[in-house]
Design goal:
single chain; alpha/beta; L-arginine/glycine Amidinotransferase, Chain A; three-stranded mixed sheet; 9 helices; 15 strands; 22% strand; globular
């Protein structure tokens, strides 16, 4: 299998969409590893398999409508495999296996039937000291954007998923790319103050536009860098509540077509006003676990 990813919005050809089959049900508070899941566990509103499964199938159906080859993970019993993005990611012709948090280590078994088909030289396992998850990594043409935490925050917060070693690892793997790393604001307890991954507060779309939440970034200059790079007129700003609802976690099928949650009325209207075709799917139950459409997909090939 040949993989190829150079940006976030070129025409999608092949992708893994996560599965909720036998996902293990509601975890205990001690087992939860993000604040939004904790919130829904406490409130008794954590999603159930019967609600998650049709949401993921709706996403797969939309992608297949556009001629995308959709793969699904092999089911690992009692394992949450919804968020396929984090266990591995593709940059150029390389598949990088992530070093994810221990609680999620079983998830990778579900896609090994695919990764074993990738040429050995194009399959890379990150060293143990490198902590990195796909939600923090965004290839964008000659650049790679990465969300991360410096050591103090990485040691303090469970929701810190990518460390400085992860940033340096990507720099060394892709010396021809410009790697821009952004510290993210983290909270283990308040989902409205937590950017779990970079795609929870920022995502490029189209040919040169972006969705962004300023307060997801620990350093204001990082936000201003992105606004200057994309141009203020090409930025869709989202507020804290919209970040919490996962407005930035949409998913591009091609430069003009975006899959979005059906309840994102303001965002979807703004996207259409900017010339995008918006494919709306129900994904509000999945969002309760602090992830949405980008989190649930692992792109393998874009044109």
């Amino acid at each position: 299998m040949k993989v190829n990813i150079n940006d976030e919005s070129s025409r999608l050809k092949a992708v893994v969409v996560g599965t909720a089959e036998h996902f293990g049900g509601t975890p205990t508070l001690a087992e939860a590893y993000d604040p939004k899941s904790k919130e829904h566990i406490i409130n008794g509103t954590f999603p159930i398999e019967e609600d998650l499964t049709p949401e993921l199938q709706a996403l797969a159906t939309v992608l297949e409508k556009y001629g995308v080859k959709v793969y699904r993970p092999e089911v690992v019993q009692n394992c949450n495999q919804v968020f396929a993005r984090d266990i591995g990611f593709v940059i150029e012709d390389k598949f990088i296996r992530s070093n994810i948090i221990t609680d999620r280590s079983k998830e990778f078994a579900g896609i090994e039937y695919l990764t074993t088909q990738i040429d050995g030289g194009d399959y890379i396992e990150a060293p143990e000291t490198v902590k990195i998850e796909g939600g923090d990594v965004m290839p964008w043409r000659d650049k790679i954007f990465i969300g991360y935490s410096k050591q103090e925050d990485f040691n303090q917060y469970v929701v810190s998923r990518t460390n400085e070693a992860g940033v340096n690892f990507i720099r060394e793997l892709f010396p021809s790319k410009q790697v821009h790393a952004f510290e993210l604001n983290k909270s283990d307890d308040d989902p409205k103050e937590n950017a779990l991954h970079l795609d929870c507060c920022f995502q490029p779309i189209g040919e040169g536009q972006a969705i962004i939440h300023k307060d997801g970034f620990k350093n204001e200059e990082d936000y201003h860098y992105l606004v200057d790079y994309f141009g203020l007129e090409n930025i869709i700003e989202i507020d804290k509540e919209e970040m919490y609802l996962m407005f930035s976690n949409v998913f591009s099928i091609n430069p003009t077509t975006i899959v979005s949650e059906q309840g994102f009325i303001r965002l979807n209207s703004e996207l259409r006003a900017r010339g995008f075709t918006v494919e709306e799917v129900p994904f509000a139950e999945t969002a309760k676990m602090e992830g949405l459409l980008r989190c649930s997909t692992l792109p393998l090939v874009r044109e």
